[in-house]
Amino acid sequence: MRIFTASLATETNTFSPVPTDRASFEMAFYAAPGKHPETPTLCSSPIVALRKRAAKEGLTVIEGTATWAEPGGLVQRQTYEALRDEILGQLGEALPVDAVILGLHGAMVAQGYDDCEGDLLERVRAIVGPNVVIASEFDPHSHLTPKRVTACDIMAYFLEFPHTDFYERGEHVVELGLAAARGEIKPVISTFDCRMIQVLPTSREPMRSFVDRIKALHGKDGVLSVSVIHGFMAADVPEMGTRILVVTDNDKAKGDKLAETLGRELYAMREQTAMTMLSAQAGIEQALGVRATRQDKPVVIADIWDNPGGGVPGDGTVVLRELLARGVTKVGVATIWDPIAVTFCHAAGEGAVIDLRFGGKAGPQAGEPIDARVTVLKTTNEGWQSFGPSRVTLGPSAVVRIEATEVDIILNTNRTQTFEPDVFSNIGIDPLAKDVLLIKSTNHFYAGFAPIAAEIIYVAAPSSYPSNPAKTDYRKLNRAIWPRVADPWKQPISPLVGEISQSHQPSLHHHRLGRRHFPPERRVQFLRILRTARGIDVLAQPLGQFGIEGIARLLEGREGVGVEHLRPHVGIIAG
């Protein structure tokens, strides 16, 4: 059996001021074919899992490029197209193959491409044809689109947040992909739109129990896989939001029912899932109160929105400035992204005392730069931290201590959120010797820091992250979702929304409308059908805004209205 595998991934915050180019991928992680390390990265687990299966089962695994960029702003168009075409070219050279198993993220957006993964998967399908299995692992902080479901046979997402199960889910995707390629299963995908967006940490209830029940469903009664797609609120794309995805063994009705049951249950608990978030002032006040009674372990303050893992710079100073103002003097900070300050520290050398301006340079939202006299405690060209079995680089880094304090700050060159306590110990800071640890992460830090923390306090300080989806200026979102509306179920569904169908065969949404086949009087008749079919008042709206895909999804399989209703009113030209 011949299997092609590759990985192309990043998480795009379309509101971020940090651009993503080729260097962003090469700086974070880039492995040429066959050069992937033996340890997996967040989005390349299928490659490592396939190597292990190949050694045991005699599979022929052809590895393509594997690359990852730290989350940031829009991917440069030529960067995405070049990396995409690099992988597609490798796939073409690998033919024939029995399966394609990919490691993707699911929230990559490039200039001119709202759906990079859908574009890539659609092109993969065009290369391999309808009979080759395509399976992919995704990050749950992503989007689900029709292109992806149409192209894929198998899709599975990490279940845990923090993503401690990324390798386990990679093995899961590989297992299902190989079983499908052998003809042992016939996977069918079902989806349900929960019409919401929310923070869904599985480190606390009610998500902990919800995910545990989902795991218990796997492999029983024809259910092959279940995923919760949390969504990624920092992306202005049409399909942004939370969904449930179920893969069954050729039982679409069961999958549809299960997806809806789980989706409605998740919607019902939406107001209980997120952790309590405090202002910087309130969070520090609580931390000092905890520290007064618990000296055995440090208090961890998570600056959750100044999180490079969400695509922001990670150079915020709001919380640190407040700690200094309150006179807190034994603090470890991981990290503040400031390549210029790192360069100055390296030039000055270890032990040097310098006047340094650091942080707050990428934009005004997350605080002003801090000016302080500091001692350069440590410099390194290879800062790093662990994340599960993988290793995350900080690049050239430095530790500085503010004068007359024990406030030690890690300055780094490669943006990254905080994952593990070894981010401190690897560069010479004892995290247990501090009163407070200030870290930049939303929840990925939890598994590593919870065992050493007296308490974890989540602080929602100002940053460039769009943390309030009720007020975010989304221009492309194609439907009503909570919390933007109180009850999205009372709102009409827009085109391309609802349960996304799976088919590798040409259908109505692969065709296009010719203007010469659509005179004005038939346009009005056709729009009346749309209104009748879905209860949507579109008579006053321009037809062009729907597009053929949107029109098709309004009609196909909906309330008895299908292609036969369309043909009398519009000519179809095979695309």
UniProtKB/TrEMBL annotation:
Domain Microcystin LR degradation protein MlrC N-terminal: 2-288
Positions of the Microcystin LR degradation protein MlrC C-terminal domain: 301-476
Source organism, top-level taxon: Bacteria
InterPro entries: MlrC_C, MlrC_N
Any Pfam family: MlrC_C
Protein name per the record: MlrC
Species: Mesorhizobium plurifarium
